[in-house]
Amino acid sequence: MSLWKQIRRIFECVLLLVGLVCIPLLPRCCVLGLARVLGDLVRWGGWSLRLVARANLDVAFGATRTDAVKDAILRQAYRHFGLVLLDLFWFAVFTRRRLERLVTFDESIRHYHAASPGLIVTGHYGNWEIMGQASALLGEPIVSVATPLKNPLAEKLMAMFRRRTGQEIERRAGAGKAMLKVLRRGGRMAVLLDQNTLPHEGGVFVQFFGLPVPASRAAATLARHTDAAILLSHSVVERGGRYRIFVQPPLRMAEATDAAVTQEIVTRLEGLIREFPEQWLWMYKRWKYVPDGVAISGYPFYARSESSEDE
């Protein structure tokens, strides 16, 4: 490991420890104010991510939204992400008490969340971390799939935060067998499915805001092998830094192909993003890969062909 990476990891660890000690002591109003400041600082300091986010907004909304509106969405998206980060620390103390006070379960939870086995699908929308922790309030902790962080201390802290209320974590690499086991015994799994997963990694290209993007077929495949209901669930941020968790009607497409099921999942997520665009992670390179044979025009500046991944 290079000296710079070692220094960076040490600096990250110091920030994490300071955050773990200080942030949980703040009143909720201060956390909300700090999230706005943090979001603005990251937005102006990280120019490369800001370019990616703005390019993504142009892809998604084109001329249907003015530049001023896109700038406002971007500003709110950064502030929203600042709150997601800070709440990792703030909810680490008095976790259950704070969840009970600030998290509301929509009426849809009573109707649909009891589906068993259940494959809970979400994206980097709202506060996906709160969902896993709050599920314990229903008396039914879930098993979530997560990609380990590169910083060992950060990974240990994240694991601790996520397990505070009984949530179990499976590493993304090789999680297939564990997911099948949980679902076959009637349990619930939670997966994030708005990331780039190429066909050779188990993905399929689907339409997202009018352009093909690669998405994982994991939910469709698991549901087909276990007869699990696919539950698209999300935690949206509301006024005062409160959260509302809701679930859409179960998706059961027994006769549909994996591609069709995955497309339906992505289409539903797109609908939510159109409704509350400031709550999605626009800084991610979601339109990074272009299917071979498809023109790159219309894609953002960072896009490249699917086959370039193998070069």
Q: What oligomeric state do these chains adopt?
A: single chain
First-residue to last-residue Cα separation: 25 Å
Q: Per DSSP, what share of the residues sits in E-state strands of 2 or more residues? A: 15-25%
Low-confidence stretches: none
Q: Number of domains in the coordinates?
A: 1
Query: What is Rg?
Result: 19 Å
Shape: globular
Derived from helix and strand composition plus strand pairing, the structural class reads alpha/beta
What is the strand tally? 11
Secondary-structure map with pairings?
Blueprint: H1 3-22, H2 28-45, H3 47-61, H4 67-90, H5 95-102, E1 103-105, H6 107-112, E2 118-122, H7 128-134, E3 143-146, H8 152-163, E4 168-171, H9 176-184, E5 188-192, E6 203-208, E7 211-216, H10 218-226, E8 229-238, E9 242-247, H11 258-275, E10 289-290, E11 304-305
Parallel strand pairs: 1-9, 2-5, 2-8, 3-4, 3-5, 10-11
Antiparallel strand pairs: 6-7, 8-9
Helix pairs in contact: 2-4, 9-10
Keywords:
single chain; 311 residues; two-stranded antiparallel ribbon
Describe this structure as you would to a colleague.
This protein is an alpha/beta fold. It has one domain. Helix content is 47%, strand content 17%. It contains eleven helices and eleven strands. The chain has helices spanning 3-22, 28-45, 47-61, 67-90, 95-102, 107-112, 128-134, 152-163, 176-184, 218-226, 258-275, and strands at 103-105, 118-122, 143-146, 168-171, 188-192, 203-208, 211-216, 229-238, 242-247, 289-290, 304-305. The strands form three sheets. Strands 1-9-8-2-5-3-4 form a seven-stranded mixed beta sheet, with helices on both faces. A two-stranded antiparallel sheet has the order 6-7. Strand 8 and strand 9 (242-247) form a beta hairpin. Helix 2 (28-45) crosses helix 4 and helix 9 runs parallel beside helix 10. The protein starts with a helix and ends in a 6-residue tail after the last strand. The model has no long low-confidence stretch (mean pLDDT 85).
